[in-house]
């Protein structure tokens, strides 16, 4: 069941990114990066079984940010691609700050949500700190690697450039993020299993995002 939902999530998330580009141009992609970065940090706190192994959610949304920066690079400019990374960085830092202010408010006697929010937002600082560091470095690395490969292949073999940059940087981010966010929270063996499983899933997702990159180049912005 979870595997089917993963495929559905891939199709839905990447399609929404293309719709954002179609309707709002690069502004829509910037907005998507901000949304995906924040919601992925909420989603990643949930662990599930995928392919018979323990994994966290968030892989598809994190991968969509790599796809978004590649689309910005291909359809607009490398400057816009870097700008997208900085927008995502600002969004997740803002999320950390506001989530902690939210927790500081004292709930009244009729509140029914504070305990649930506390469960998510209490973990948020460590998860998001790991995410902030690895998000920034891995996505900036992806931008530079993609641009370098673009020059090496003389602006050809987009599928190869996309997969090399996304898989290398995504897997690097995944391993560093999982260990930074969950070491000593879960048993070490569980952390290793989560990192490996999530990496496998991210490789699959990275391969699946390639057709969407080609579609993004063909889609004309409404603006």
Characterise the protein shown here.
This protein has 223 residues and is mostly helical. The chain has one domain (2-218): Arp2/3 complex 21 kDa subunit ARPC3 (Orthogonal Bundle), CATH 1.10.1760. Helices cover 81% and strands 4% of the residues. It has six helices and two strands. It has helices spanning 2-43, 59-75, 78-104, 114-152, 158-182, 188-218; strands at 47-50, 53-56. A two-stranded antiparallel sheet has the order 1-2.
Largest sheet: 2 strands, antiparallel
Radius of gyration: 18 Å
* The CATH architecture: Orthogonal Bundle
Cross-sheet strand order for the largest sheet: 1-2
Shape: globular
Mean pLDDT, all residues: 87
The count of helical stretches stands at: 6
| Total count of strands | 2
Question: Percent helix among the residues?
Answer: over 70%
CATH class: Mainly Alpha
Could you give a short description of this structure?
The protein has helices spanning 2-43, 59-75, 78-104, 114-152, 158-182, 188-218, and strands spanning 47-50, 53-56. With 223 residues, it is mainly alpha-helical.
């Amino acid at each position: 069941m979870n595997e089917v939902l993963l495929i559905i999530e891939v199709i839905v998330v990447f399609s929404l990114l293309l719709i954002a580009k179609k309707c709002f141009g690069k502004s829509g992609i910037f907005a998507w990066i901000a949304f995906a970065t924040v919601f992925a940090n909420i989603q990643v706190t949930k662990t599930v079984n995928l392919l018979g192994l323990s994994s966290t959610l968030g892989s598809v949304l994190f991968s969509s940010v790599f796809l978004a920066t590649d689309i910005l690079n291909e359809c607009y400019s490398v400057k816009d691609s870097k700008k997208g990374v900085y927008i995502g960085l600002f969004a997740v830092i803002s999320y950390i700050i506001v989530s902690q202010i939210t927790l500081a408010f004292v709930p009244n006697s009729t509140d029914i949500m504070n305990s649930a929010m506390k469960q998510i937002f209490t973990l948020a600082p460590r998860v998001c700190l790991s995410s902030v560091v690895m998000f920034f470095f891995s996505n900036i690395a992806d931008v530079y690697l993609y641009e370098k490969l673009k020059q090496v292949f003389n602006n050809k073999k987009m599928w190869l450039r996309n997969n090399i940059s996304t898989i290398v940087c995504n897997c690097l981010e995944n391993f560093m993020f999982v260990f930074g966010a969950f070491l000593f929270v879960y048993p070490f063996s569980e952390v290793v299993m989560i990192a490996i499983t999530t990496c496998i899933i991210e490789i699959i997702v990275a391969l699946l995002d390639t057709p969407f990159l080609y579609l993004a180049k063909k889609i004309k912005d409404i603006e």
